[in-house]
Known about the structure:
Largest sheet: none
Oligomer: single chain
Distance between the termini: 21 Å
Number of domains: 1
Structural class: mainly alpha
Number of strands: 0
Amino acid sequence: MVWFGILVVKMAEICLVTPPIGLNCFVVNGGRPDIPLNDVFRGIGPFFVADVATVGLFIAVPEIVTFLPRLMLQNL
């Protein structure tokens, strides 16, 4: 369940920065109208790639997600 919750949050994060929804990009553009929206969408490129790589890693090696909770439960 923890793995699925983390995966859903990461996918929602990806959804909020990519077009056509891109809500976070529109918020940035509203706060800084001097920066064109195209530049904002181009600026999220490296973060989008990192998020997709993270999701891929979580799917390939699910133990990464549960490593810290399992470590904390062992110390109790």
